[in-house]
Structure formats: structure tokens, C-alpha cells
Amino acid sequence: MTPPTPSTPPAVGSTPPGLLRNFCIIAHIDHGKSTLADRMLQITGVVDERAARAQYLDRMDIERERGITIKSQAVRMPFRKSDGDDAGTDYVLNMIDTPGHVDFTYEVSRSLEACEGAILLVDAAQGIEAQTLANLYLAMDADLHIIPVLNKIDLPGAQPEKYAEEIAGIIGGNPDDVLRVSAKTGQGVEELLNLIVDEVPPPQGDPDSPPRALIFDSVYDTYRGVITYVRVFDGKLSHRDKIKMMSTGAVHEMLEVGVISPEPVKADHLGVGEVGYLITGVKEVRQSRVGDTVTSNARPATEPLGGYAHPNPMVFSGLYPIDGDDFATLREALEKLQLNDAALVYEPESSGALGFGFRIGFLGLLHLEIVRERLEREFNLDLIATAPNVVYRVELEDGSEHVVTNPGDYPNSGKISKVFEPVVSATVLAPSEYIGTIMELCQARRGQLVAMDYLSEDRVEIRYTLPMGEIMFDFFDALKSRTKGYASLNYELSGEQAADLVKVDILLQGEIVDAFSAIVHRDNAYTYGVALAGKLKELIPRQQFEVPIQAAIGARVIARENIRAIRKDVLAKCYGGDISRKRKLLEKQKEGKKRMKMVGRVEVPQEAFIAALSTGDGPS
Amino acid sequence: MYVHVPFCSVRCGYCDFNTYTADELGEGATRASYADSAIAEIRRAAAQTGPRTVETVFVGGGTPTQLAAADLVRILRAIDEAWGLAPDVEVTTEANPDSVDPAMLATLRAGGFNRISFGVQSAVSHVLQMLDRTHDPLRVPEAVRWAREAGFEQVSVDLIYGSPGESMDDWRRTVEHAISLEPDHVSAYALIVEDGTAFARKVSRGEVVMPDDDETADKYLLADEMLEAAGLGWYELSNWARDEAAQCRHNVLYWTGGEWFGIGPGAHSYVGGRRWWNVKHPAAYAQRLAAGQSPEADGEVIDADAARMEDVMLRTRLRTGLDPAGLPAHDHLIEQGLLEPVATKLVLTKKGRLLADHVVRELT
User: Fold this and answer.
1) For the whole model, what pTM was predicted?
2) Is residue A591 within 8 angstroms of chain B, CB to CB?
3) Can you give the pLDDT at residue A7?
4) A64, A71, A77, A277, A604 from A261: Cα distances, Å
5) In Å, how far is A584's CA from the nearest CA of chain B?
């Protein structure tokens, strides 16, 4: 064997496509994607071990804390091949990170489009999970070359034979071809990099046609404005070009192009197959949307790359400042968040109970939680979130149609001819011993069994059609607790169905509190009303006066509770040694009171609005 | 002056005061040496405050009568030497009914003590057991009689209501019993589950169940009615006295923003706009003083806002009431029947006394 001849690393932005490999990693949250990415960055010398922040690719603090990746990014890694005929050749590997949560399926599909190959990374102790399976199918639909990899083979509980067989059963091929690595120790990672070069096809495109580049991510940066991540398919994008967004025709100046490795490196241009970033001076990510095609203004392409879609909010919730004076701050905060979150939509609304706030549309519940947490943390707001709901389509007797995003706007039942609710197609993967309990849960949530397949002798894939409203809040938690954490879930919107739905209102002291209204199935309305009234009785502290709680459908009361008036608070001693402590307690109580919302004359704690949600399985 | 005696024969499950049984204490913190430590702190304190006249002395605990009477007298004498006692000084000691005898009471009286407060708590055996109190309720009248015979001018009894298992009738018997002792003063506190006590653990494990708040409210009203009928009028929401002279002047000083110096482990002091507190453990306390160091653990400056808050917090509880000038909007509290104007002041109504914490939150 002749010693390899060292080559010079390819130039940034104009790498011959034959030396480029664009790939992503498909993995479940804790299956070690970030660790593998870190290890690759180290082996390729992009990041040295000491400088490596743990999980370099996950930028935002919230993501880091939750151990999830919300926003994808791309990192360019020079890699000198160390085996095979081309050993010693310098390649460029672009690793495109993908979001790992069901709320962000559209972003995932765009990231996949930017690649030619995907590493299917599976924990050798846990096997494939439902979300991974869903993303794998997306990757296979996009014709990506799949490299199956089992991670964590160093763990004592690893069962590589079993799960290699499972993977082979899903993607075809031989179980022995499944690569086994430990991202933690680095075992097998170099082999994987070599395999990527060998197996992932190099990008193909026409260097002479008008440029076309796919936006697969778009991030707002305080200093630079929007940073747009693109994959070039045809032609080249030069930093001297004016660029055009093909969905809107909007034209922007190009200020800078470059690649990330792992810090931004400026380039003269980005050619066919290259993955990098553009800075155009736009200030809102909405002006540079994921899935859109970028072309040159001077020499525009005629056809955009396919697949652009506008993400629609699936879940709505009202967000209200506890202190009404914070309304303006909340509006400014939402404006700022929207700079970086094209999927966030909102409009002002007012609630009789909560005053002025915003109805906000989210991609899903994780999205909701992230937005709410960022508002509270970054803008120091105390907020009440009303129970999230899905979007209903209501046909009235007079033939008109209404889209209901807020239960408070649900028309009177007398006028309604038909109500449609969104449904999802859900996939649950679990050990087969839990089939019974999973089916019981899905049945209770009005699910319809579609299919059931064995992935291996003792693992099963169960598919259900479920009303989205039924799985929004605590379905996943219930699923996890019934299966000792072994079940995984994926779902996607799959249309709508007509349903017999009613609005259940809650009345405090005889007045409807709109923030507690919910749309539920008629068969569950009574149980829901009783559970919620009971829950509120526990959560609302006794007041200076009696507070009757009623649950009602229209004028018909279906449940009643009563919070008796408080007669005594603490009658404690208050001697010299108690004064400081008692004053501090008083200060704390006054702080706590600020987190209460006055609903009419009744002080309602923040938790009550959220707790309204967790009544799905009856009082808890 | 407050003097804290951190000793008890047994630790009551509900009590969160800084107190220890003999077994819990290490070297250098024996009952025998405690008075020496306290006297050392008194001398340090006098050097710190400069000349003052002491209007009231209150020896509390713990169980002060766990100390020898001579030691208590020695401490009082040290206070007199350090600052000087006012001619009409009020000198109180707390006492357990079963840890006194006529000789001891005579020594205390002769040594300058003129007020005694007995921890009676309840007249009902099963309630006393719940509270881990060891005394025999039948011994209480005897102890009170001895105190009168020894010449104590003021005799007070402390009661606790709202214990698990205490019926309304049990409480009525306790109040009747207290009245039959013909005390000058009664304190009655609702049992509070204090964090970190053995009692709190029992409650959280569900071994005992705290009574409903409404029942406890009824017990307060019953006590108030019975005590008023017996000629004991409320002057602080948990304290009743035969007349103004029978009020505990020491506690009134706490409640009206007065200054005090606290001696002993864990004792709080409030002098010159600053509040501080001593190290809690008697051994650490003794060691600090033996080494010539201050026993202070930590402290805080009470700024104008905090002082204002404390003033409202404390005066709201008093029958002398609050000056309405400078208070936030409070008409709703009058409309709700929680406060009533009395002459130029605002005073808690009976309903308001039960909800004093709420009233304070509204007024601060």
C-alpha cells in the first residue's frame, strides 16, 4: 500500500462537489446525538477538547437545560480520509443539525432536504423511538442515504445484536452492517467519518445555472440581524450579489456569505453543494423563511426548489400579564421573540377574567412552553397561560363557518350544525407487554386503532388516529407513566373529523370566567366539569367571602363546589424573636399575592389556570 | 431586657423555640455554668449600650425554672449592676407548673421577680400528652397558690388551643380551669405547626390531623367570650388582662417598637435601628463569651420601610389600634367588618382579630 499523498484542504465556499459530503444525524433526544457531534468536531480538529463546550451545537440556554435541540445549525468539518483507496484525500463534511421534537417536523424536513445522507443513531440499550422512526421515514422519503449506527455500545445494558436486527428490519439490509460506536469514548467514530465519505453521495448541481439555495434555518442575532443558513443546489451565491427570496420576490442586499467551522468564516461565494450562511441585513426571520429558495436578483432562477410550506400554528393559548400594567412590555417582548421565531403568531385579545393579553398560536406544546419560559425569563414577566386548545371549525345552521381558536368564542350550541376537530395520526413504539394499557389509554382519549406491527419479538408499533385536543396536554405523560417510560410517541396532523363537542364553562360567584372555558367531547363533559370544579376548589385559597364554583354547559349546571369564606388566618405568637421572621414572611406573602390574579373579587393563583388542564384522567 | 434560658427537661414536639434537654448539650454549656455566660454577655452589652434604665425584664425559654432560683436572681442582679432597674420595673419569669416549689418561688420573689407566667397549655390530660407536656393538671392550682403566697403581684397563664384531638368541650374546660385560677393575665395561642419540629413531621406523615381552621376560630371566640365575662379584656389579639396594670409591659414594648437587649443563645436584640441575634447553640454561645467574643450570629438594619411595616404588623394586633394617618386605603376593611374606628384609632373587630394577618397584608 502506497502512503497517501497529503492534499491541501479545499477552499471555503468553492469546494469541488466531489469532495463534499452533506449529512445529518437522526436520533432521539437522549441517544447521544450531541455527544457524537462533539466527538466528530474533535476528531476533525474543528474544536479541541478543552475548548469544546459541552454539546456545542445547542446554542440557547433553554435548549441546553432541556437537553433538546430546537434550532438546527450546520458545521463544516475538514476531514482527511484515513482508509480505502482515497486515504489521505481532504474532504469537507457538512454536518447539519436537526431539531428533535415533533413540534418542529417541518424544520426537520427542510434540514433533511439539504443533505444527501443521514446517520440513523440509535441507543444500543433502548432501540429506536417513535420520533426517530418518523424522522427516518422523512429521510427515506427524501431519498437520503441512511447509515445505521448503534451508539453507547460501552454501556452495560447495551443489546447491539437485538437492536441491529430491529434496525435492519426497518431499513432493510444486514444487521452486521450496522456500525457500532461509542460517542462517549470515541470508539468507531473515525470509522463512521470514513464511511460517510464512502457511502454518502456527493452533491450534484449545475454550477452554471442561475443560483438556487434552500433556506434550512434562519436565526436572529442581536448584532448581525438575521443569519440565514442555506444549502446551495445550483450556481453560486456571491457576497456581491443582491439576492431574491423566491416565495415573496423580496430583494435584499447581501452583506456577507460564509461557512460555520465552528465560528463564522467569511467566503467570497458559496458554490454547488456548499452549506453556509448569508447575512442580508433583514431584521426578522419571517423575511427569510425556512424552506424558501434564495436566488440572485440579477440572474434569477425560474423555478424554486420544491417543498416550501408555511408552518401553521396547531395550538393556541392566551397569555396574560398578571400585572395589567405589563401589557405593553408583553407586546414588545412578543415582537422581539418573533424576530427569531417565524412560527410564532399572535394577536391581542381581551378576557373578562384576565384583562388584556394575547392569543398566541404555537406549533405545539413544547413550542408554547419555550415561548412562555423565554418571556418570563428574558423579559421578567409574570404570565398566566390559559389552557391550550386546538383549532375547531364550526359550521352553523345558517351555513356560515367559523374557525374557533379560543373556547370563549365558541358559538351557542343551538346554532351549531357541525363541529370539526383536528386529528393526528399517532405512532407509539413500546415493549409488547404494554399493548393493553396503551390501547386502554388511546381508547379513553377517543382514539381509533389503525394498525399494529411487531418491530421485533417483543417490540410493537401501534398506530392510532386520535383527536389532537385529546393528546395535547398530558397524553405523553400518561403514556410514559403507564409504560414505565418505555413507550415513545410521534404524531402528525392528519386532517379533521366531525365530533360531538360542547363548551364547558366555569363560573365563580355566578360569573363565567372565560379563561377556564374548554371545548370537550359531550361524553366527557360531566367528568371534566366535576374534576375541574374540584380542582379549583383545592387551588383557590379561601377568601373573605364564600365563592361558589359551578361548571356548566350553556345554562345547565353540571357540577358545583363551594369555597367557604376564610374565618381565621394565623393566630401565632409574635414576641421579640419572632418579629424579623414574621416581617420577612409578610414580605414573601405580599410577593405571592402579586402572583394572584383578581378575577372579579376572587384572588386566583397562577397555577389554577394551568391546573385546569391536568384533569384529563379525572381528579388527581 | 430579655433573657433566654435554653433548657427544658423534655423537648415538646410542637415547640420551635431554641431549647435543649440536658442530653442534647455538649461540654461548656451546662445548666450550672449558664448564668456565668449570661452575666458575661450582660457586661459586654452594658459596655455597648452605655447607661440605660431597664424598665422590664423577661426571663423566658426553654424553661427558666430549670435553672436554680439563685442563678436567676444572680442574672437579675447583674442586669441591675450593669444598667440599673427602674423603681417600678416589671420582672417576669416563665415557669412550668411542675418545676416550682414554695422555696424557689420565695427566693425569686425576694430576689426581685414580681411577675410569673405559668405554661399551663391545657387542663385536659390527652391534650397535654399530645403536646408532650409532662405536668399533672391537678398541680397547677397549687403552683399558682404558692406564687401568690410568695408575693408575686402578677400571675399569668399560657394556654394553647387547636391541638389534634382537642374537642370544643376540652377547650371550654381548659378556659374554665384557667379562669378558676384567678389569673391577672392570660395568653392563648392557636397551635401552629412549625417547620422542622417533631410535630410537623407527625402531621406530614398523617399520624396526627390538625383541626379544621373554622373550629379553631370558634375556640378563639369561645375563649374571648369566657375571658371577657371573667373580667379579663383583650389588649393584644392573643392576650387578655384584668386591667391595664396587668398587661405584660415587656411584650407591649415589643409591640410598640420599643428597644430591647436579648441575652442568651439565639436571643434577638433591637437597639438603635438594628436587630441582631445570637448564635443558637448554648455551647457555641458559651465558647464565644469565654473567648471574649461577641455571641452575635447575624443581624439586619431595620430601615424606614421595614420599621413602618413592622409597626403596622405589630400595632394592628393591639386593642390600642392603629393611627389611620399614613395607612393605605382601608375603607374596604371597615366595610367588611374587620376594622372599626374607635375614637381616633382603627381597631380590629372580633372578626378582624381572627383575620389579623390578612388585615396586616392589606395595610402594608
Assistant:
1) 0.68
2) no
3) 53
4) 20, 17, 7, 11, 51
5) 9
